[in-house]
Design goal:
The chain has 389 residues and is an alpha/beta fold. Helix content is 48%, strand content 15%. The chain has helices spanning 32-42, 51-58, 66-79, 127-141, 158-176, 197-207, 212-222, 224-228, 236-243, 248-265, 280-291, 306-312, 316-325, 339-350, 360-371, 375-388, and strands at 5-9, 12-15, 20-23, 26-28, 48-50, 90-93, 97-100, 105-108, 146-151, 180-185, 268-273, 298-304, 330-333. Helix 1 packs across helix 3 (66-79), helix 14 (339-350) packs across helix 15 and helix 15 packs across helix 16.
Length: 389
Amino acid sequence: MKEKQGLRFGPYYLDSENAQLWRGKKTIPLSHKAFGVLCYMAERPGQLVTKEELLTAFWPETCVSEATLTVCVARIRKALRERALTPRCIETVHRRGYRFIATVQKSSDAQSPSLPTAPMAHMVGREAELGQLRRILERALRGERQIVFMTGEAGIGKTTVVEAFVHHVQTYAKQDGAVWLGQGQCIEQYGPGEAYLPILEALGRLCRGPEGQRLISLLGQHAPTWLVQMPTLVSAEELQRQVMRTSKEKMLREMAEVVEVLTAERPLVLIIEDLHWSDVSTLDLLTAFARRPEPARLLVLGTYRPVDVIIRDHPLKAVKQELQMHQQCEELLLGYLSEEAVQDYLRRRFAPGAQQAAWLPQLARFLHERAEGNPLFMVTLVDELVEQA
């Protein structure tokens, strides 16, 4: 039997046959288009791949702007945990396209990752924060609106905590009842940006999910202007009827009201990452969610980097302060990992042999000093040490 060949670069593994991106033993979610674009560039390391080439390859019969490709690449960079200004994998060639700059190696089945572990398997030092999120979810399930901001610097572990919380919500949904669970992501945009971008992304995923038809029906009845923004989900007749009546203000009112309809049927957990790049309309909607007095089984969890908010003078700072002043939101600040948490990580990653290993405290101390308690830097250091061993 012929071995399947994947591509490995840094800590990542691309399994093109199964359309999966792995980091260690964890799969990284990517849309079909984003995965295809990543594979296309990774198969041509060091070569300039022009924007025209990518648009022709992946949007051959669709009239789209370069902004569509920009959004796609931004989501790939998010998955690879890198920024455009400091690329490790994808370099932007100004006005022309992109170049894949990471070292790529072909890798057979025998070298591919094993099945992914549960989200909590290697998460350490975040038990208190996850416990707090669980208590916040319990309040939301009782009909008390909850707006939560999870903050911390780049690499501090916000996405890891979000993934563990999502796993908890999914477990609850299987055992105790259905939940609308939507996830969206803000991206760095130049200019005014698209209104409600992360909310539309979250709703689009929900509408394409197992219970999507029910959600489409409720949106069509109570928030039709939102469906107009997702043209693949509505008929041409409905699209033409609504398009002339759409405005950001109308969309704000409709969504603020439809949330009460949705949450009367089942709780809604809405996760929005990277709010430091959010558009103003999304912030207006979060404010409306928080201030409406009607009960709703709603939990909105937003993540952001405070330094980026300050540098950009982003309106999120004023929004959060206003909501805090009226006790309409909570903040979860993720701090650095302790040396004990680093030891716990090493025990989990290398168990059972590491449990009583004499080298464990010394290695933990070295990693803690070098990474300064930043989880992403710590994991990267461990990955490099494993590769060199």
